[in-house]
Amino acid sequence: MKTIQCATHGEGELVFVCEHLQQTSHDGVARGVFIFFDAEKTMNAWCKECDDRATASEGQPDRQPLKFDVKHLCRTCFEPIRQLNGGGILYR
Predict the structure, then answer these.
(1) Which of 8, 10, 11, 88 has a CA between 20 and 30 Å from the CA of residue 64?
(2) Which residue, among 45, 53, 40, has the nearest Cα to 79 in the 3D structure?
């Protein structure tokens, strides 16, 4: 598990999120949450819009790598976003 130094909560578990989920922490808009834990057990989370873009590009012959503006949050900052979105969908 990787950690981050949060200005609000101190040292905590690192969560990588898309820019849209970071925006949710500011505006309270539910955007859907998809969650994946990588090999190092670090949580990665993205919204429905980002998931739809990734799904739409899958298998396309001219597929370009998707670029996401990845942000960093502590797990405590991320928790209200996850709860607002019904807990999220876990990818395995």
Answers:
(1) 88
(2) 45
Q: Are 31 and 46 in contact (CB under 8 A)?
A: no
Q: What is the 3-state secondary structure (H, E, C) of 4-23?
A: EEECCCEEEEEEEEEHHHHH
d(CA 34, CA 44) in angstroms, rounded, equals: 8
- Among the listed ranges 3-7, 17-21, 57-61, which one has the minimum average pLDDT value? 57-61
Query: Quick check: 20 pLDDT over 80?
Result: yes
In sequence order, the 6+-apart residues with CB closer than 8 A to the CB of 43 are 13, 14, 15, 16, 35, 36, 37, 75, 78
